[in-house]
Amino acid sequence: MCARKTFYIFAKSSDGQLFCAVRQDQPIPRMIDGVQWRYVTCIDTTRDRPFGFDVDDANKAMRNGGVYFYKREFVFSQPRTLLQAA
Question: What is the CATH number of the domain that holds 75?
Answer without folding.
Answer: 3.10.510
